[in-house]
User: What shape does this take?
Amino acid sequence: MKFKVIIGVLCLLLILAVSCQSPQSIEFARYYSSGSLLYQSHCQNCHGAKGEGLNALIPPLTDTVFIKNNIHQLPCLVKNGLRGKLTINKKDFTEKMPSNDLAPIEIANVLTYVANSFGNKRGTIDVVQVGNDLNNCK
Amino acid sequence: MSRLILAIGVILLWSACKFNSTTSNSLPIYGNRQAVTRVVNGQTVIDTLYQTIPPFKLVNQYGDSISNNDLNGKIYVADFFFTSCPSICPVMQRNMLNVYNTYKNTPDVKILSYTIDPKYDSVKVLKKYADKLGVTGNMWWFIQGKKDDTYRLAEKSYLVAVSQDTTVPGGYVHQGYFVLVDKQKRVRGSYDGTNAQQVSQLIDDVKTLKAEPAPGANQ
Assistant: This one.
């Protein structure tokens, strides 16, 4: 009898532990899933469903080093677009990227999706950080 | 009783097979058609004259002039794009690359991408675009000409032939259709170039066209 109670309590604890995600991971999941939808409507036509880009015309989003090193420039890049040369995966890209009319929270969502897909693993890119980065756009 | 069930089962199976085998594999011929009367070997015969792509003269990414005579005996896929297009063109070209990679070594299949912005898309710009897309050789031509000519060709020949609904002027040009044209310059299909599934259907339909008997073979 005692044995059964112990097992029962253990099971209950296990269920609690699994079902209760930390607030951080809930926030991440929310950012990521909203970002995934924004990616489909704003980015996927050019950058592709797997972030593969398009040969030498459109850069892929799979260069984890670029994403890591430019994490604070990415909000400006998404918002204002880009002209000029960009080196991704050791290849040069010179086509123009159009600007996107997105709110800071949407930029944070879509960047969280990109920075945690296609081989990238940078965690949540939160809206406060994106706001600061946007203030420092060149 | 069980015999009856077995018999019904067999009939059902048979009819299912029959149904599949009668699904015709031939493609429709789009556009207007008219009957013409000819005299062949002293006998009067009535022929159907189908709408075809009219003659045109344009320039490709290598600066060579291209007329529709260069497409005699070729099956080709036509689309309309511009190199600076940020919206649907990349996904169209990604799908068209599948067509290119499937048929790039097949001499009687070609792709024609007409630019709808010839002012910006000079021969030089088109060549650079083709290079960046990874397109070489003469299977896929990026062609430019007078804007009016291209629009007229698009709306009057390629796309009206597919659908008579012209409530959206110029709309087709921007909707990213891939138009399939047979060896006799008749429109045989149109596909949403932004939809990968429809483009694989197009790739299959090119095979169907290749299997059609040569023009005049049955006359």
User: Anything to note?
Assistant: The domain at 23-135 of chain A is CATH 1.10.760.10 (Cytochrome Bc1 Complex; Chain D, domain 2). Chain A has one domain: 23-135.
